[in-house]
Design goal:
Elements: H1 4-15, H2 27-33, E1 39-42, E2 50-52, H3 69-72, E3 76-79, H4 89-100, H5 115-124, H6 129-142, H7 148-153, H8 159-171, H9 177-182, H10 190-205, H11 212-221, E4 226-230, H12 236-243, E5 255-257, H13 272-281, E6 288-292, H14 295-303, E7 308-312, H15 323-332, E8 344-346, H16 352-364, E9 374-376, H17 377-381, E10 387-389
Parallel strand pairs: 3-4, 3-6, 4-5, 6-7, 7-8
Antiparallel strand pairs: 1-2, 1-9, 8-10
Helix pairs in contact: 4-5, 4-10, 10-12
C-alpha cells in the first residue's frame, strides 16, 4: 500500500519544480525537507530546515529495515582535547603568549597583561605554536623587522618587556628567561622550548572541563565509544590526561594527534586526525559526533564528513562575555571547505548527552550523515543550559535557551 509520505512526494513532484529536482529524489529525502510537525531539523549551514515547527502530533521517521539494530546504531564520539575535554587552553596559551610577547611589534610592557593578552589567546586558541610564530614573523616582515628566530638568537629583546615576561614566568612555575640564558639552557628553537615548558606547566595545572568526567562515565555506561582527536602533540596530551585524572577513559590507543601521528604533521582544519580516530573506532565518519571549541577544529570535523558537530564554549579560556560571539564563530564554518559550521553550540558539556543519544537514534532508524536531518522537541527539552542552534541567532529566553528560527528552507 502506498504510504502517505510517498503519495505526498509524488504529488509535489507533479506541481513543484523544487520537489522534481535531483535534491528531492525520494520519499526518504522528503522526510528531511518537510519536517514533522513535532520536529526540529538540525541540518547545518544551508542544508535544511532550522527551528521549531507548529505544534501537532506526528510519529518519528520509519524504523530502519536493518536487522542488526546494534550495528545499525553504532556511533562514536570524537573529542578535541584542549578546551573541550581538558580545561588546559588557558595554561597552554599562557605559556605560548609569554614565549612570543618579547617579539610583538612595539610591545608595551604595561599593556602585556589584560585585554591584549585575552584577545591574543582567544584569536590563537586551537592553532599550533608554529603557526603562531609564522603569523608573527609575517607581521614583523611587513614592518621591516627581523624574524623572531633572528631577534631571539641575537638577544635583541626589550629589557623592560623581558622583566615583565620573567616575572610572569615565575608565577606560572617556569624559570625566568634570564636564568635559563645564564645557565646556558636555552634551546635554539623556540618551538622546542615552548613544547617542553607547556608540558611542564600542564603536568601541574591541567584539569578536566566542568562535568566532563560525568559525561565520559555516562557514555561508557551507554556503550558509546569515544576517543580524542586533537592537533596537540604527544606527550603533552597524555600528560594532561593523567593530571586531569582521565587516564581510565583514555588509554594510549584512544589518543590521536595530528602533530604526532603523521609525518609531516597534519594540523586542523586538515581532516586527517578525525579520519584516523573514526577508523580506529571502526565507525564511518558520518556516524560520528565531534565535540570542538575552535574554528579550525570545527573545520577539521566538517572536512572529515563527521555526522554531527557539537561546538562547546564552556571552558575557562572563553570569557563569559565572549561566549556568544565564540559560539557564532563556531557556527560560521569559515575553516571548512564547504563553510559548514557547528550544528549546535553548548555551554554545558552535560547537554551533549541527549543530543548524542538522539543522534544514535537517527542513525539507528536509517538517517545518514553528515547533517543527520531530524531532531525532535524532546531532544532539546532535555538540555538544561544555554545553547545555540546553527541558523538561530535570536536572543536567549529567560531559561537561557536560544529561540530557534521558524522552519524555513534555506538554499
Amino acid at each position: 500500500m502506498m504510504t502517505t509520505t510517498l503519495r505526498l512526494w509524488l504529488a509535489l513532484r507533479l506541481v513543484s519544480p523544487v520537489f522534481s529536482s535531483p535534491r528531492v529524489s525520494s520519499a526518504h529525502t522528503l522526510l528531511r525537507l518537510v519536517p514533522s510537525t513535532r520536529s526540529r531539523s538540525f541540518a547545518g549551514n544551508g542544508l535544511g530546515f532550522f527551528g521549531r515547527n507548529p505544534k501537532g502530533s506526528s510519529s518519528r521517521p520509519p524504523a530502519s529495515t536493518c536487522r542488526d539494530v546494534s550495528a545499525c546504531g553504532k556511533i562514536a564520539v570524537l573529542f578535541d582535547f584542549d578546551g573541550t575535554i581538558g580545561d588546559t587552553e588557558v595554561c597552554a596559551m599562557e605559556v605560548c603568549y609569554w614565549e612570543l610577547a618579547p617579539y610583538f611589534i612595539d610591545a608595551d610592557p604595561q599593556a602585556l597583561e589584560g585585554p591584549m593578552k585575552a584577545d591574543w589567546i582567544r584569536e590563537n586558541c586551537g592553532k599550533p605554536f608554529g603557526e603562531m610564530i609564522d603569523a608573527l614573523d609575517e607581521k614583523r616582515k611587513v614592518a621591516g623587522l627581523s624574524s623572531v628566530a633572528e631577534m631571539r638568537k641575537n638577544k635583541e629583546e626589550d629589557p623592560k618587556v623581558m622583566d615583565v615576561v620573567d616575572s610572569v614566568r615565575q608565577k606560572i612555575g617556569l624559570k625566568p628567561i634570564s636564568e635559563i640564558r645564564a645557565a646556558g639552557e636555552e634551546m635554539a628553537d623556540l618551538w622546542d622550548q615552548s613544547r617542553g615548558e607547556i608540558e611542564q606547566a600542564l603536568a601541574v595545572l591541567a584539569r578536566p572541563c566542568k562535568n566532563v568526567p560525568e559525561v565520559l562515565e555516562e557514555l561508557t555506561e551507554e556503550n558509546i565509544p569515544f576517543s580524542i582527536a586533537t592537533t596537540s602533540p604527544k606527550p603533552r596530551v597524555p600528560i594532561s590526561v593523567d593530571t586531569s585524572g582521565l587516564r581510565g577513559f583514555f588509554p594510549p590507543n584512544k589518543i590521536h594527534s595530528g602533530e604526532s601521528d603523521f609525518d609531516p604533521p597534519r594540523f586542523k582544519p586538515d581532516p586527517s586526525v578525525y579520519l584516523k580516530a573514526a577508523e580506529a573506532e571502526g565507525v564511518n565518519p558520518a556516524n560520528c559526533v565531534a565535540v570542538e571549541d575552535s574554528a579550525s577544529g570545527v573545520g577539521s570535523a566538517a572536512n572529515a564528513g563527521i555526522g554531527m558537530i557539537i561546538g562547546y564554549v564552556g571552558a575557562s579560556h572563553i570569557p563569559h562575555s565572549d561566549k556568544d560571539e565564540h559560539g557564532r564563530m563556531l557556527i560560521d564554518g569559515k575553516k571548512s571547505d564547504d563553510l559548514r559550521g557547528a550544528d549546535v553550540v553548548l555551554w554545558n558539556m552535560r547537554d551533549a548527552i541527549p543530543l548524542i543519544n538522539a543522534f544514535r537514534e537517527r542513525i539507528r532508524t536509517g538517517e545518514e550523515g553528515p547533517h543527520v536531518g531530524m531532531f525532535f522537541d524532546e531532544d532539546f527539552n532535555k538540555i538544561e543550559s544555554k545553547y545555540m542552534l546553527n541558523g538561530s541567532m535570536k536572543k536567549p529566553r529567560l531559561s537561557e535557551k536560544w529561540d530557534p528560527l521558524p522552519a524555513t528552507y534555506v538554499g
